[in-house]
């Protein structure tokens, strides 16, 4: 299977790509904190934040289609989680709901720019030098490495389902089958994690994360 990796364009040559990863991590988190702490109705501030991100996107030479495709994925999930807010907060609920969507999108856009201009091993090394807890770095490393393995396994299970149903599956049956697939995938992920951990221990793993840089 081929995947659109998170840091697919991290090898490009631009001003942003050449910056110290530690500086990019710090600035990114400051930006996200500023966005999150903004008033939900501070639309002018949101517009300025968005303009700054668009300028960085142009400077980075990362294809805009790649970034927008990655960032727009988050909107439906955030909207689903925040859907009850307009009904719980009265007349201010809609403004709060809109503010949450905008904040989430700007934050995801910022993180996408960070990972698109910095190779993932360099990000891990930068966080290690910034004294980020090793357990957090290790979790991020394993998430990145095994995300694509899980995606491949999910696709294989989907193909197996389709080959048995020949496309004659109702909407409710589809939901039921997908629920079963997710359950099986969770169990297999847990079993794989156990095997990987035992394999690492047998090779002398002492809890210290190693990177190539």
Q: Can you give a write-up of this model?
A:
This protein is mainly α. The protein folds into two domains: about 15-125, no CATH class; about 135-200, no CATH class. Helix content is about 75%, strand content about 0%. Helix 3 (about 45-60) runs parallel beside helix 7 (about 95-115). The longest helix has about 30 residues, at about 135-165.
Give the SSE map.
Blueprint: H1 15-18, H2 21-37, H3 43-60, H4 64-72, H5 74-81, H6 85-88, H7 93-116, H8 120-129, H9 134-165, H10 171-202
Comma- or semicolon-separated keywords:
213 residues; mainly alpha; 2 domains; 10 helices; 0% strand; globular
What global shape is seen?
A: globular
Radius of gyration: 21 Å
Low-confidence stretches: none
- Total tally of structural domains: 2
Oligomer: single chain
Q: Mean pLDDT, rounded to whole units? A: 81
Q: How many DSSP E strands?
A: 0
- The proportion of residues in beta strands is under 5%
The number of distinct helices, counting runs of at least 4 residues, comes to 10
The major sheet is characterized as:
none
Percent range of helical residues: over 70%
Judged by helices, strands and strand pairing, the structural class is mainly alpha
User: What is the terminal separation in angstroms?
Assistant: 27 Å
Order of helices and strands: HHHHHHHHHH
């Amino acid at each position: 299977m081929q995947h659109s990796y998170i840091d697919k364009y991290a090898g490009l040559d631009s001003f942003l790509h050449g910056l110290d990863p530690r500086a990019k991590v710090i600035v990114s988190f400051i930006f996200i904190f500023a966005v999150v702490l903004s008033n939900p109705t501070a639309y002018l501030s949101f517009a300025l934040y968005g303009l700054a991100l668009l300028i960085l996107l142009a400077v980075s030479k990362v294809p805009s289609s790649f970034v927008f495709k990655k960032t727009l994925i988050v909107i439906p999930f955030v909207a689903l989680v925040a859907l009850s807010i307009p009904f719980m907060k009265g007349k201010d609920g809609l403004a709060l709901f809109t503010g949450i969507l905008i904040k989430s999108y700007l934050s995801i856009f910022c993180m996408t720019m960070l990972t698109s201009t910095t190779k993932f091993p360099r990000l891990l090394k930068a966080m290690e030098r910034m004294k980020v807890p090793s357990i957090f770095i290790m979790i991020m490393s394993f998430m990145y490495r095994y995300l694509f393995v899980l995606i491949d396994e999910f696709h294989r299970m989907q193909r197996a389902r389709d080959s048995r149903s020949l496309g004659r599956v109702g909407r409710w049956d589809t939901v039921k089958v997908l629920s079963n697939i997710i359950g099986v995938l969770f169990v297999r992920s847990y079993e794989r994690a156990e095997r990987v951990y035992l394999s690492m221990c047998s090779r002398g793993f002492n809890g210290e994360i190693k990177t190539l840089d």
